[in-house]
Amino acid sequence: MTSYMAKPEEFVTVHKGSIEFEEAANAMADECFLYSYRGIFYNMPAQCGLEPPFYCVTQGRYIGVFSSHIWDIMKIELQTPGNRVAMYFTVWSLVLGEQKVHCAIRCRLAASR
Fold first, then answer.
1. How far is Cα 72 from Cα 33, in angstroms, rounded to an integer?
2. Beta strands 64-67 and 54-60, pairing class
3. 87, 59 Cβ separation under 8 angstroms
4. Is the pLDDT of residue 1 over 60?
5. Hey, what long-range contacts does 8-12 have (CB within 8 A, 24 or more apart)?
6. Which end of the chain is less crowded, N or C, counting CB atoms within 10 A of the terminal residue's CB?
7. What percent of the chain has pLDDT over 90?
8. Are 31 and 45 in contact (CB under 8 A)?
9. What would the 3-class secondary structure string for the chain be?
10. Is 73 within 8 Å of 52 (Cβ atoms)?
11. Could you tell me which residues come within 8 angstroms of residue 24 by beta carbon, excluding any fewer than 6 positions away?
């Protein structure tokens, strides 16, 4: 498993009109980069040098790890009626949060929307 902070091994471009485009667009949260693990999209902060705590979301409108400075906005979005009930918890490092997201994906516990 390569940490999101490591140099990417590859970049993938999702083209508008492709099968993956709508799924990627719906999965992408503000102020985050979108990653894919085993075909599941998840978010990680786009900004470097952020301080903990971080919030790890394994089910909900968006999945991934989110910084505390955008958490209030994300929490409202996650609790919007019609979206999947969010499952989230606090983590103290981005690496640990990403590992938890990967684990949820491997165990088929991660789900968006």
1. 19
2. antiparallel
3. yes
4. no
5. 12/36
6. N
7. 33
8. yes
9. CCCCCCCCCCCCCCCCCCHHHHHHHHHCCCCEEEEEECCEEEEEECCCCCCCCEEEEEEECCCEEEEHHHHHHHHHHHCCCCCCCCEEEEECCHHHHHHHHHHHHHCCCCEEC
10. no
11. 14, 34, 41
